[in-house]
Amino acid sequence: KAAECADLPLTWHFIGGLQSNKAAAVAAYSQVVESVDRAKLVGPLDKGAHAGSHSVDCLLQVSLDPPGAAGRAGAAPEELAGLAARVEEAGMLELRGLMAVAPPGEDPRIAFDRLGSVRRDFLADHPRAGWLSAGMSSDLEQAIVAGATHVRVGSAILGSRPRVK
Prior knowledge:
The protein is an alpha/beta fold. It has six helices and six strands. It has a six-stranded parallel sheet with strand order 1-2-3-4-5-6.
């Protein structure tokens, strides 16, 4: 789709889980990657940005799951400092902020309250990384109250995805 729309002034955001073997290809066409959740992605993203001849804005995906709970992807809050350092060391990547998704079955307000605390600590060390991508169609109001600068509202616009059998 990016190639078909190359003549339009679009900014492509990659959201969702990213496999390290696909990271270079994603960075070659995306201007923003919202789901950097481990250091293994940084090298391939940087390589793809070089190949695409453009910098890539990165959001670190932080897990809001309680400790020990299996849930959504994301780096543990205590891993963010190291991950941020890796992104900042890469030549073609720009650290822009954080991304998070409320854990399934949890009140989004409670999850986004935890995110607010994580974000305050993160911004103390990275004051220029003020973007916050949080919230989806079902919880965007709570995310905005928590300070989200970006929300993901695909299902509100495109409808629910069909269930796979």
